[in-house]
Each structure stands twice: as C-alpha cells, then as structure tokens.
Amino acid sequence: PAGVMPPLPSSSSSSFFDTRLRSSSSNNGVKSEQESTLRIEIEERNTLTEDEEKYGILDGDGTDGADAETGVIAGAKSPAGKASAGKAAAMADGPLKKKIERALKPRAYPLFLAEKAAQIVEGALPKSVDEDGGGISNGEKEKIVVLGVGWGAAAFLKDIDTSKFDVTVISPRNFFLFTPMLAGSAVGTVDYRSITEPVRQINPKANYLEATATSIDPEAGTVSCESVVCEGTSCAIEDFAVPYDKLLVTVGAQTNTFGIPGVREHCCFLKQVEDARRIRTAIVNCFERANLPYLSDDERRATLTFAVIGAGPTGIEFASELRDFVESDGAKYYPDLIRFVKVKVIEASPTVLAPFDESLQEEAIRQLERPTRVKDEAVASKLPPDFKLTELLLNSGVAEVKESSIALTTGEDIPYGIAVWAAGNGPLPITLQVIDALKEREEGAEGGAAETSSEQADAQDAARGRLAVDPWLRALGGEGRILALGDCSCVVTGQLPATAQVASQQGEYLAKLLSGGYDFFPGRDEAEGIVLPPARGRGGDDGGEKSMSVSESIAAFACQSGGDFAAPFQFLNLGILAYTGGGSALAQLQVTPDERGRVKGSGKVGFGLWRSVYLSKQVSWRNRFLVFVDWTKAQLFGRDITRV
Fold first, then answer.
1. What is the pLDDT of residue 513?
2. What's the rounded Cα separation, in Å, for the pair 473 and 492?
3. Closest listed residue to residue 226, CA positions, set 171, 300, 289, 307
4. Could you give the CA distance from residue 315 to residue 420 in angstroms, rounded to a whole number?
5. Quick one: pLDDT at residue 493?
6. CA distances from 26 to 23, 233, 401 (A)
7. Coil, helix or strand for 398?
8. At how many degrees (to 10) do helices 550-559 and 109-124 cross?
9. CA-to-CA dists, residue 279 to 146, 195, 446, 536, 567, angstroms
10. Residues pairing with 3 in the sheet
11. I need a labelling partner for 275 at 20 to 30 A (CA). Which of 44, 422, 596, 608 fits?
C-alpha cells in the first residue's frame, strides 16, 4: 500500500538496505503533496530522455511481418539472429545438433493448435497446492523476482506454481492495466478502475513490493530499488536491494519522442492511467476555455483543435473515441462550440493502421473521414455545410511541437489545444542498464563466458535497446538466470510485434516451463560456450525424468526432440482489432498462418467482435462486470465530464 514500506524477503540481509532522506515535513497538510513530488522525482529519474531516436519502435511495428503471420520465432531474419542461429546449430555434433536444428523450425500448425488446446485443458484441471507456498521467502524455495506488472507479468503470475517458487513482484504500480482500453478511459467511456486489477488479486501468494527497480547486478544476483516511504509527517526515498535466483524482466516500454523538440514538454502520452486522466481533464478544460465570452472565433478554433500524432492502433482508437465524445456528449453540453472542433490525425507514413490488411486500412480512412453524426437537429443545423470533424494528414511528419502549435515537415503550422503523442515506443533506463550489465560481464569474463556475453552486444543492432533473448526467452549472457519478455525484449532469431498478445503468451510459456521443473541452465557447450536449451527436470524418488504432460508430448513430437529439452516459444497470432468510432471497428482474425487464412470484419460486425474480445480478455469477472456497466451507463446517460 502507498506510504507503507513492504516487507523484504526474510532471506534479505540488512546489508542490502540503504536509506536516503530526500525531504521531510512537520506539516500534515503538505505530506500528500510531498509524497507525490518524491514519486515524480523517481519517475523522471527513471525515464529515458536522451538519444531516444536510437531506439525508436513505431506503434504496431512488426505486427504485419512474416514472423507475426506464421508464428515463427526461429527464422533467423536479422544479422544478429543469423549469428545466434548459426551458433545454436553448431552447439554440438551428432544427434543433439540435429535435434536443435529441428526444434528451431516452426512447429506444424495443426500440431501447434493441438498443443495449445491441450494446454487449455490442462490449465482447467485442478492442481495440488502447497498451503504454505508463496508469500515471504522461507529460505527453501527458489526466488523469482518479476519486474513489472504488465501483460506478460499478469499471465506469468496467473500460471506460476507458488508452491515451488518464492515469487516477488517489483513495480511502482500496484495494479495491472488493460491498456487497449486506455483510449476509452481518456474520454470517459469507461472508468479507470474498471480496467485495472490489483496485482495482489492476480496471485495472492506472490509478494509485491511497491518500488521502482533502478539497476541489477547479475554477478551478485540482486535488484536495486527505490521506494517512497512516509512515516508520521515526513516522507523519504529509501533504497534497498532484493536478491533473486531468477529474474524476469517484463517492464515494457516507454513512449518514444524520437528526439523531436517539444514533444516531451508539450504533448500528452497514452501509456498509463495518469496519462488518460490528464487527457480527460484537458479535454474538458479546452471546452470550458473555448466557452469564455471574450475569445474570438479563431481562438476558439485553435483551442478546440485536438492533434493526434501517430496513426497506429493507439492513435486511431483515441481519435475515434474522441470523435464519439464530441458527436454525442460534446453536442449535448457544448452545442454552440461543435462547429469549432477539429480532430487532426497526423501521420508521417502514407497510410493508417500499418499492421492491418490494405482493405481494412481503406475502411479505417473512410470511417475517420465520414460525415459528422449529431443526433440533435438543432445542433446539426449550426454546423457549416462543409464541416469535417476529423482531418487526416498523411505524409506529414512532425518537425517540432511548440507551446500552442505543431510545425510539420511539410511547412504547415497547426495550432492546437491538446496534442496527444502516440507515435512509438522506446526502452526504459532499467532495460538499458540490464543490457549494459550483461555487456560488462564480457570484460571480466574469460573463455566461453566471454563468448556468451558478447552475443548481447552483437544483437543490439537488431534489438535497438531491448534485451536480446534466445528462443527460450533467456537473456543472452544471463546464463539462464535472467529472462525477459514483452516490449522490453527482442527474440534475435525472429522479432515479434510489441503487442499484449505476444507478451501474454510469453508469460504463460515461461510460467509453464518453470512450474514444470525445466532447468534453464543445464550446461554450456565447451567448444562454442553456448548455453544449452532448457532441459527437463528430474522428479520422483528414483530421480528419474519427470513424466511429460499431453501438451509437452505434442510439442516434443512436433519438434522431434524426444522430450530432452523444452520446445522454443512460438507465437500464435490470433489477429488484431481496432475501434474506428461510431459503433464500428476493424477485426482481422488469423485462422491459418498465411494471408489466405485471414478473416476480416468491419462496421457493426467488427464492433461486435471488438467488444466481445475486449470483454472476454479482462483479467477477472469483476473487470468484465465493471466494463459492461460502464458501456451501458455511457450509452444511457452519456459520459461524465465532471472534474473532481
């Protein structure tokens, strides 16, 4: 809970703990403000603001690539991937080499679907639970530290067996956030709390520390953290370290400004609940300011111009939700101002929604440029005959964002009231620090260890500030102790899109391997100095190999590995969705791994699929109920514009 220092695992010694008092106060009235100031200090210190252009990944980048279509991660597309795959193929001679070569090929699609189906059935079966498992370390279980509470972490926490592991989650945010619905929460379609779930609720037996991870020490096996602690009338930032046996890095990514001047100073982002709350308040502020009697029409027009920079899934969904707000609630509360409103979508490329099929991209453009729908005829009569609520500016890059205008690369200068930046992702400082820590091992290592660690540095040409991992999601150079998934990672043998779908499947995959007793560091090939694939663990009184589950047997058969080691991660692309406003959405479902297997839907059909999928993907029945109620309230009573 905020303001209370969470207990450290009992195995942590006092030498891991260090306290720094940054500020204090004897006035209860400023305590809350002081705590907020310290949290902002930590956040700013752990946000990358330099050389962002080096690490830029566009919103939706990679979603339409070959790997996403076929579900392959072992294609060795990039130079780094080819080098890694080449070393993997040379790990051993004879039967083992052939097994690894076969395992790195994509599993046959029918067998892969059968494997997934078996996993679903196995997950539904009752499991034996150790009543004493989980919680604070008892000194007997292997310690797993999870950094982050995003999609990958939530999926991992749901499936990990806490009777076998002491799991500790470290994050400054004590809840999971359903990020695809942030755009809706930014205009009041759904409430923020409806799309969040406390991390302690996801897995009550996992320990949670409300803190920010600032660095890791691979040699010592510790994570250094910062946390704001308030006692009495004073608050302070305290530093402490948490030991781990295995570290799961799933911190996601931050918004990338690509080094464009003024973006970080003047734009709103859409990554966290705080961002959505800030945008929601700013929208109402713009309308209230435009309603002041002394403003000219040109000033009202500038104030009510909403610039959305980036036409990927995030940008298009926010622009569509904002359009819905203006057409329904804006027309009801501000009938005389609607004629001044303009939503401008700015995109540097020649199209929108790059991950989608071309026909669906065209449909998205038609929806964005459709005539304005205002039900109140009195309000509609006040609109000019040529009125267009949404304007799409393609092939228009942003050169600079000023306090009240945006300079485009085309030479045009656009005044605005709010600018929302939804153009790309970049790494967090903690991700770069982990990469540097693994690189530093190369300088002090000898022989095979140095060879292994050098792969992390070599892979950065393709990874671009993300943790390079092998097909089993082990960080290169981490010797099986450091794992990574989601937006902060890059599978060097075939990159995957930065989507919630990928991160969730990776979290489930790692939880199953760890819970199944796989050894993530069974040894190293002496000739090449390469870590061998995760091997099956031992079990039973006789120390023999543990029996395989049905899904493991199918995977072993598909890989032709004989069950000697784990099947590599393989992504099952289920499709992509995007809301386009006015009760319409785009749905591109992937039935088979090639283009012929795409099932496309738009309009009301797409909207039905979009809502049903988003509702079913909520992490709990509580969230499903709250989201359904929010949708119903918005339909019956409109969105709430109250500023509290």
1. 94
2. 10
3. 171
4. 8
5. 82
6. 11, 5, 41
7. strand
8. 160
9. 30, 17, 52, 50, 44
10. 229
11. 608
Q: How many CA atoms lie within 13 A of 291 on its CB side?
A: 13
Kind plus residue range of the DSSP H or E element containing 254: strand 254-255
Written as six digits, the tokens of 277 are: 């709350």
- Give the number of other CB atoms < 10 A from CB of residue 139: 10
pTM for the whole structure: 0.86
Residue type for position 241: A
Alpha helices in 397-478 (DSSP H): 429-444, 448-458, 460-463
Task: Put residue 637 in one of left, alpha, beta given phi > 0 → left and psi -120 to 50 → alpha.
Answer: alpha
Q: Which residues of the chain have pLDDT under 70?
A: 1-31, 49, 59-97, 127-139, 441-454, 525-531, 538-546
Which of 39-46's residues contact partners 24+ apart within 8 Å by CB, and which partners?
Answer: 39/172, 39/228, 41/237, 42/172, 42/212, 42/226, 42/228, 42/237, 43/172, 43/212, 46/212, 46/214, 46/428, 46/429, 46/430
CA nearest to 310, candidates 253, 392, 370, 200: 392
Rg of the Cα atoms in the chain: 26
Two structure tokens written together for 198: 């406390």
d(CA 162, CA 153): 14
pLDDT of residue 268: 96
How far is 144 from 141, CA to CA, in rounded Å? 9
What per-residue confidence (pLDDT) applies to 27? 53
* Chain segment 342-395, per-residue pLDDT in tens: 999 999 999 999 989 999 999 999 999 999 999 888 999 989 988 999 999 999
Buried b / exposed e along 3-33 (16+ C-beta atoms within 10 A): eebbebbebbeeebeeeeeeeebeeeeebee
- The residues pairing with 320 across neighbouring beta strands, listed in sequence order, are none
φ/ψ of 411, rounded to 5, equals: 100, -10
Q: Which of 159, 154, 157, 155 is nearest to 127 (CA)?
A: 159
Residues in the chain: 644
The letter for the amino acid at 403 is E
Give the span between the Cα atoms of 569 and 112, in whole angstroms: 11
Burial of 320-337, coded b for 16+ CB within 10 Å and e otherwise, reads bbbbbbbbbbbbbebeeb
Tokens representing 633 are 């309230």
**Rounded CA separation 489/499 (Å):** 12
Give the pLDDT of residue 538.
Answer: 58
